[in-house]
Design goal:
Blueprint (H helix, E strand, L loop, with lengths): L1 E6 L6 H13 L5 E5 L11 H13 L6 E12 L2 H13 L3 E6 L7 H6 L2 E4 L7 H19 L7
Parallel strand pairs: 1-2, 1-4, 3-4, 3-5
């Protein structure tokens, strides 16, 4: 089972519409998606670490000890779709519970990196926070379509 937690609720607009579309497409595959409210970006950079720590503390409260922590982060290992498909298949075989997390606009606290089993990047490019959520959802949907043997070439 995969659960995706994203810090920050998508705002209105085409990206939010796309996120909603992929939420609906992923529902039959049992992917649960949760949005945590973020504290926003403080004016003072000296407060960034505090915000990231608060966000991580909020997320940690809902992660069970049996769940594997998977961070989507620009500093992570680059995977392609085939690697994601293999990972999800392996997870299905072993009945593992994966909690994938997309951090807030400031990223993750060091504690998150220390506790994560997987840290994976979509790309070395920088994307807006909302675009990253949309792309993760699209890649999960693509992976589940491949796993189920259904065509997907949008």
């Amino acid at each position: 089972m995969v659960r995706l937690i994203a810090i920050g609720k998508p705002k209105k607009g085409f990206v939010a519409d796309g996120i909603k579309e992929f939420e609906n497409r992923l529902r039959p595959y049992g992917v649960k998606i949760e949005f945590f409210r973020e504290g926003g970006i403080p004016r003072s950079p000296s407060l960034y670490e505090e915000v990231k720590q608060k966000e991580w503390s909020s997320v940690k409260k809902v992660i069970k000890p049996s769940e594997h922590i998977f961070l989507w982060d620009s500093r992570g290992e680059l995977w392609d779709t085939d690697r994601l498909v293999s990972f999800l298949k392996e997870n299905m075989i072993h009945s593992g519970k994966i909690t994938m997390i997309i951090g807030g606009p400031l990223g993750f606290s060091q504690n998150a990196y220390d506790e994560a089993e997987y840290v994976v990047s979509l790309s070395r490019f920088t994307f807006t926070h909302q675009m990253a959520i949309l792309m993760v959802l699209e890649q999960l949907y693509r992976a589940y379509k491949i796993i189920s043997g259904q065509p997907y070439a949008y």
